[in-house]
Amino acid sequence: MSTGVIIVLIVAAAAVVAVVAILAVRARGPHGGHGLKRRFGPEYDRAVARHNGDVKAAEDELGALVERHGGLHERPLEPAERERFEARWTAAQESFVDSPRTAVAEADQLLAEVAGARGFPDGAQYEEQLAALSVHHADHVHGYRRVHSAARVRTGGSRDADAPGTEDLRAAMVEARALFGDLIGSSRGEPGRHRARTSGPAVREDHSRSRSARHLPWGAHRQQTKEG
């Protein structure tokens, strides 16, 4: 085989390798690197932390989530459905002062139901539902994780030391409220993750409530819920 032929074959092989590499990068598209970081936001950092700083392992995990759930289409809520969900959330918020743990448990259940109504995996499959939500509502999905974890902690006996305090429960409710607003807001054709950052104003002054109730940073007015 002549030197010229060998050179041509080497050049051709190099060209094939280059084309394959370019196609591989393009195929990853928004599933890799900066695309994943933009899409997942804080969830990207949590994934990296879960993998002890191994960025490739984290991106492989997040890329797999996009492959599995990226094609999910969220079903809009009917007006009556949305009103029922909003009324239940308002009731849960109002019950927090007297029974924080019951309110958190209701918030956890409600998020599962709203997500299911929007077309996400059923709430009985929590991990799968959470994974799908992380793909489409990455900015606020951690609120669901927090409230679900708090709702599952049992109190009584030696486990009381591990149970979240009232302030932790309140913080979980607030963060969960952001995801709830995201799901409800985006069901109206609005950009939910931006809408959710402007959740309801502070609860109105009510001297029949305890002092801590006045500092709950969510809107408990039914009127506010209807306007939202």
UniProtKB/TrEMBL annotation:
The chain crosses the membrane at residues 6-25. Residues 184-228 are annotated as: Disordered. Keywords: Membrane, Transmembrane, Transmembrane helix. This is Secreted protein. It comes from Streptomyces vulcanius.
